[in-house]
Amino acid sequence: MNAVEVLKSEIQQVYNQLDSFIETWIENYTSSGGQVFCHKGCNNCCDLPVSITLAEALLISDNFNNDVVNEDKLRTYLDKLIKYVKESKSELDYLKSRRINIGMCPLLNGEGACSIHKKHPIPCRKTLSVLNHQFCKAEAINNLPPLEVRKYLDKVKSISDVTGGRGHYVSETSNLGSYLQNSLRGNTKKLLGFDIFGDLALMVFLAKQEEFIKVVTTKNVRKVTRYLQDNNLLHPYIISIEQAKAKGFG
Ligand code: SF4
User: Fold this and answer.
1) Which residues have CB under 6 Å of ligand 1?
2) pTM for this one?
3) What is the pLDDT of residues 121-146, one digit of tens each?
4) Contact 100/8 with Cβ under 8 angstroms?
5) Ligand 1 centroid – CA 43 distance (Å)
6) What is the average per-residue pLDDT within 85-108?
């Protein structure tokens, strides 16, 4: 198996591990009276920034299970994202208004459902809302009258044992997801000598470019960086390349 095939086989196992943890977590939580509000057809959080590993991007870009990425939609979204990133005064500025300025994920289909559901990446899998999904919408809290904001904050307080006190998403599934992404990144470094991690649309777009995959498999980080520069796709807010540490001699 070449490096690309190894990464693709690894990610499927990681998804199985995360899904089985999430399933058990939901069972335990709901059987003790809790409620998880995520459901099929809801896309209220699908405009949040999502960063993925190379392994996730490779799996998503594969056309199987009828999960087909609409490349035109992806390219249009990416052009908008890159223009916006370049115009942003700071990373904080970019993140603050990204949901409003960039809009929904280009992988949503015409019916508003995830077009790659079986392969959707770790950040989307691990995000579970334990408050009504209306609160997941962009600007949802900012648009509430003051009394409703108070009620929301009281609710957030009441679920802090499962959210870690931050917002209304489950912390245990989120932490496991982050841990699994980090371990995938570590394995990518071992396999290729570098890791590449970035915005969902950008990573999927790259994984679909034959030329990019050829460059990646040279395991030469300089060539990969040059490819991104030449194609106007290298920007620190949306992509990062980390080289593996050189082995010491002693
Ligand atoms: S990949 Fe699917 S679940 Fe994730 S943000 Fe995009 S449409 Fe939503």
Assistant:
1) 43, 46, 50, 105, 107-108, 114, 116, 120, 124
2) 0.93
3) 999 999 999 999 999 999 999 899 99
4) no
5) 8
6) 92
